[in-house]
Amino acid sequence: MNKESLDRAxxxxxxxxxxxxxxxxxxxxxxxxxxxxxIDEPLAAARAVRALLARxxxxxxxxxxxxxxxxxxxPGEREQVPRQSRRKPRAAAxxxxxxxxxxxxxxxxxxxxxxxxxxxxxxxxxRGALRTAREEAREAREARxxxERRAEALAARVKELEARAEMAESNLRTLLAAARGAGRDVPxxxxxxxxxxxxxxxxxxxxxxx
Length: 210
What we know:
Layout: H1 3-17, E1 25-26, H2 30-36, H3 42-54, E2 58-61, E3 64-67, H4 89-97, H5 105-181, H6 190-200
Antiparallel strand pairs: 1-3, 2-3
Helix pairs in contact: 1-3, 2-3, 5-6
């Protein structure tokens, strides 16, 4: 493990230890923890998790990860959990039968194919995550657009009601001033009463002719 991979794995381990004590399960996904420490690539986060699993800092339990040991990985520390060989049993049998020496072209080809298959699986996982992220972004944009549309409609409605209230207040003041000018003992006429009721109900805004 080079220094960059070691630092990345220890940073990932520190992020895990900040969320769970040894023996506890981690609720966050590796991708989420990776983003917290600046690892945006899911493949890099997966490699850090694999390094921690191989050195018994983490273990898989019920589809999640459990923190076993919060001690940072030391430089040169060997893996405690051997990796599963990607070589097929038949290829392994042929390898044991031949004497030690340079690998054959067929062995190199098989290793290349196995690696391509592994990379293909990783690419498929990343594509699935990308589709999910795009769908979430689309839903967020639609929700924001709907919220903006509703806000604009409410703002227009408020302006309309404010204008109607100001006009009604102005008309009512004019009618009351006219009524006071005619004298308190003079009853309000039918036209004036109808105009006042119209203003109070938000109806026509035209004043009756003098």
